[in-house]
Amino acid sequence: xxxxxxxxxxxxxxxxxxxxxxxxxxxxxxxxxxxxxxxxxxxxxxxxxxxxxxxxxxxxxxxxxxxxxxxxxxxxxxxxxxxxxxxxxxxxxxxxxxxxxxxxxxxxxxxxxxxxxxxxxxxxxxxxxxxxxxxxxxxxxxxxxxxxxxxxxxxxxxxxxxxxxxxxxxxxxxxxxxxxxxxxxxxxxxxxxxxxxxxxxxxxxxxxxxxxxxxxxxxxxxxxxxxxxxxxxxxxxxxxxxxxxxxxxxxxxxxxxxxxxxxxxxxxxxxxxxxxxxxxxxxxxxxxxxxxxxxxxxxxxxxxxxxxxxxxxxxxxxxxxxxxxxxxxxxxxxxxxxxxxxxxxxxxxxxxxxxxxxxxxxxxxxxxxxxxxxxxxxxxxxxxxxxxxxxxxxxxxxxxxxxxxxxxxxxxxxxxxxxxxxxxxxxxxxxxxxxxxxxxxxxxxxxxxxxxxx
Length: 454
Description:
Blueprint: E1 3-7, H1 11-23, E2 27-31, H2 34-43, E3 48-52, H3 60-70, E4 75-80, H4 85-93, E5 98-101, H5 106-135, H6 147-159, E6 166-169, H7 176-185, E7 194-198, H8 204-212, E8 213-214, E9 226-227, H9 229-232, E10 237-241, H10 248-260, E11 262-264, E12 271-273, E13 277-282, H11 286-291, H12 297-303, E14 306-309, H13 320-330, H14 342-350, H15 356-370, H16 406-424, H17 429-435, H18 440-450
Parallel strand pairs: 1-2, 1-3, 3-4, 4-5, 6-13, 6-14, 7-10, 10-13
Antiparallel strand pairs: 8-9, 11-12
Helix pairs in contact: 2-3, 10-12, 13-15, 16-17, 17-18
């Protein structure tokens, strides 16, 4: 099923194709000339445009060029009773999907339209599939046998087939995205798209455009009509990571989508209905954000239909040996070639892990790089792992008899903590600033001061 625009100056042809396409399950709209067709292309998005070549005021080649400008992913089928080899070659060079002679057979136009819609869908699905392959499927990417993780596995299995909105909470690095993908891949929507977006990575206008789409000219940089991710995810799942980073103005629009299951593109004039499951995640305490006036209480209740909390790594220390073996395998060091010594495992198990599983993976990757197929000992681990945490439990401070350059020592410590915070956060400056209890401008200033460019 596709959205088709039929452009022809003959009313009988427009009516014939509209009825034919409707019987095939497509949604068809018509334009009696190229000028009207271009206006419709500026205001809406179609899967396929079927256009006559010879028309008064504006011909099919101009319509084809308008499609290339406003909606380049749309398939264009040219039809004409006055075909020449030169015109056909020109149309194909301009990007037309097919070129059909009048009079055409009914079965021929049915097949061409069906294939064009399928090609359009395949383009979208292939892009999403590449992301899926990279991210993996189901719960096989979860490593753990602890009671805390068994509860997570049980809840995911229980609600995966539901359509209810899920709010995943937990510290940074605990696997919230893995949980969202598992909910999708184990549920009835698994054969439909899974669309991920990090809400904190885009300013409000671009975030709205990414999710809801936009029309050409609706803002600076909107050079063509664009489908939003809610449309791309039709029938599937939209995962809104770090939902707490959105503005209240955007939260109002998201609340409307959750309540009414419809939205409007930026610069658009018509509402679009959508069938998607929404899964949201945050590493913040939303109750606290509501009290602070940063998050809408009504949106929280809409999102928190099924709450899923991901445990911190320190709450599931029993899983650390399994995770270590998994990360050794990722580094190509498993299978007996590299072992982790008892003292190293003890140190790993007793560490606070503010960066959770992500931080553990970084530590193991570093340790693998520092060993030559021998044992990973405590000496291969970062020094702070022996102190129980990044900033806590550092032990007694002793001043050498010869004294120290205090400013130099503090500068060195500050630089080390900045680098470690970036490592733990996977390069996210916003998260690194949070780990160090700094404002983002202050964190950015310190990076510049120490010449740290990540």
